[in-house]
Design a protein that fits this description.
alpha/beta, Glutaredoxin, 5 helices, about 20% strand
Length: about 140
Amino acid sequence: MSMSFERYMLDMVQPMRDDLTRIGIEELRTPEEVEAKLPGAKGTALVVVNSVCGCAAGQCRPGVAQALQHDVTPDHLYTVFAGQDKEATAKAREYFAPYPPSSPSIALMKDGELVHFIERHQIENRSAADIAADLTSAFERFCR
């Protein structure tokens, strides 16, 4: 019995996708979905660039989940998956200038403009609680 590489990867990453979708974050899987949501999002939008790496599992996704328990949260919640939904991720990253591609990473946008960004190097050596604190501070500043 053989399984295609694509099917294997889909099965392997589904739990990583579920970490975010089960808490209400909408996946954007195509460039068209990104284009339909990000530039026209009124209010605030959180965009998580998900990935398969250990810092995404140990710090990024748990930190985002903790932050979303805060009283003040963004109006819209989105995610793209680096390395899996490559075209959607590339399109989302167009809105994150001047920051270089980074995964995982977390963007906070307000009325289509980037207002806060957490890069991989700000995730990999911090705890989920530290990331949540960073995000909740940004939520307090930009989401009220």
